[in-house]
Amino acid sequence: MSGSRPAVLSRAAIIAVGSEMLGTTRIDSNSLYLTEHLNRLGIDVVSKAVVGDDRPQCAHMVRSLAATVDLLVLCGGLGPTDDDITRDVVAEVFERPQAADPAIVEHLRARYKARGYSGEMPRNNLRQAMVPRGADVLPNPHGSAPGLWLETGTRVVILLPGPPRELKPMFAALVEDRLRPRTEGAGVFRSVIKVTGTIESQMDQQLHPLYDVWSARTPPVAATILAALGQIELHLSVRHVSEPEARGLLETATAEVIGVLGDDVFSTDGRSLEAVVGALLAERGFTIAAAESCTGGLFTSRLTDVPGSSQYVREAVVAYANDVKVRAPFDARNLRRILEGKKAERLPKALGGVTEAARSIWPAWQRPARRRASGS
C-alpha cells in the first residue's frame, strides 16, 4: 500500500556465485565483510552458500534461500562473459524481463575508450547493461559491472560485483544507508574469549550454568564454543539498540566466564596467544631465544608474526639432524636428563652453547604462578 512503511528486514542470506569459489585458490571474504556490516544494522545472516556457474543449480539456490529470508545478497557473476550468470538467474527466478539501460551502455563505452582500447567495444560487454524490470541500478565507479537492487513483495534482493575492491565501496556508499531504515534498529554485537589449557567438552560443562543465566536476561546473551588449533574460543553475542549497553552486557558475561575458567582465559580483547606472550615478555623486560627441531621454526614464526616482536625475540636455531642437535646450540643429552627428572635448576648449565640472549629468559622459568594475561 502506498505510504505504508516498507517491511522490516531481519534475516539475510548470502550467495557467492562463481565456480572459482568452489576450488582451493579463492576464499569467500565478501561474506565475512557483509555479515559484519549486516549484523551492525541488526540483520542476522542465517545462511551462506557458494554456487558455481551452473544456471539450474544457482536458480535452485536462489529459490530455496529467498523463501526463508527477507534479504538475499548475491556476490559475483555480473561480468560480461557467458559464465556470469547471476543477473540472468535472478531475472528468471523472479520473472523480471531484462532490458538494456542506455546510461550503463554509455558508461561501458566511455570506460572502454578511456582504457585505451581501439575499435568497437566487444558486444558481450553489453550483458552488463541488462537490468531486470523494476530493479534499481547501483553505479560502480571502481569497475564495469553495476550492482542491482530488486524488491519482490516484502523481500529485497541485492546483486553486488565479486571483486572486494568493488563490492565494499558499493555496499558502504549505496546499500548500507538504504538498508538502515528497513531494520528494527537493534544491532548484533559480539565478543570473543580465548581459552587454553582445557578441552571443549570440559569447558562447555563448566559454563553450562551460565548459559541458563544468560538466556534469561533481557536481552539474552548467546554463546557458541569453537575449537581451534591449540585453543578454544567462546563467541558471545547480544542484540541491542545501544552499542554501549550491549558492550556492557558482554563485559559482564566475560567477567562471569573468567570467574569460572580462571587463568585458562588468556585473551578477551582479540589478541592471539603469541601476542599475549609477547606482551608479557616485554612487560617484564625478558628476551627469548628458541632451539627448535620438529617444529621447524613454527614456534619462532608465531612469535615474530607479532609487530614489535624484535623487542623481545633475539634469535632462533632450527636443529633437525641429530648431530646438529648435539653440536649446537645445546647438548641435547644434557637436556634430556633434565627433562627426565633432574632438577630444573640445572637447565641453565645444560644450555651450555646457547647465547647470553637465550640465557636472559632464565628468570621466566623461575617466576611464580601464571597470572591472567588478557587485557580487557
CATH topology of the largest domain: Molybdenum Cofactor Biosythetic Enzyme, Chain A
Query: What is the total tally of β strands?
Result: 14
CATH class of the largest domain, named: Alpha Beta
Radius of gyration: 28 Å
End-to-end distance: 50 Å
Count of discrete alpha- or pi-helical segments spanning 4 or more residues? 14
Q: What percentage of amino acids are in beta strands?
A: 15-25%
Describe the overall structure.
Helix 2 packs across helix 3. The C terminus is likely disordered. Helix content is 38%, strand content 22%. The protein has 3 domains: 172 residues, Molybdenum Cofactor Biosythetic Enzyme, Chain A; 81 residues, Alpha-Beta Plaits (2-Layer Sandwich), CATH 3.30.70.600; 94 residues, CinA-like (Maf protein, Alpha-Beta Complex), CATH 3.90.950. The protein has 14 helices and 14 strands. It is of the alpha/beta class. The strands form 4 sheets. A 6-stranded mixed sheet has the order 2-1-3-8-7-6, with helices on both faces. A 4-stranded antiparallel sheet has the order 10-11-9-12, sandwiched between helices. It is globular and about 70 Å long.
